[in-house]
Design goal:
Keywords: Membrane, Transmembrane, Transmembrane helix. There is one protein chain. The protein is mostly helical. The chain has a domain of 43 residues. It contains 1 helix and 2 strands; from the N terminus they run E-E-H. The chain has a two-stranded antiparallel ribbon. The chain is elongated, with a radius of gyration of 23 Å.
């Protein structure tokens, strides 16, 4: 199921500070998507960190060791 959880403001003025959510129909699928999304975010952050470290090492090695 490709359901998205959307937040909407309450229609009642007295409860305008409360945010209502659509119900989660399939809890297991939601948890699986959440776990997959977290894992993909960890991989992305790891890749970006390693790329930054490699660029920094390469830059400083060219600047200081390339004499």
């Amino acid at each position: 199921m490709n359901r998205q959880i959307q937040a909407r403001a309450s229609a009642h003025l007295k409860n305008s500070h409360i945010i209502e959510h659509t119900p989660i129909i399939d809890e297991v699928a939601y948890e699986q998507r959440l776990k997959k999304r977290k894992f993909q975010q960890i991989l992305k952050n790891t890749f970006e960190s390693m790329a930054f470290i490699c660029m920094a090492v390469l830059t400083f090695s060219i600047l200081f060791l390339g004499e």
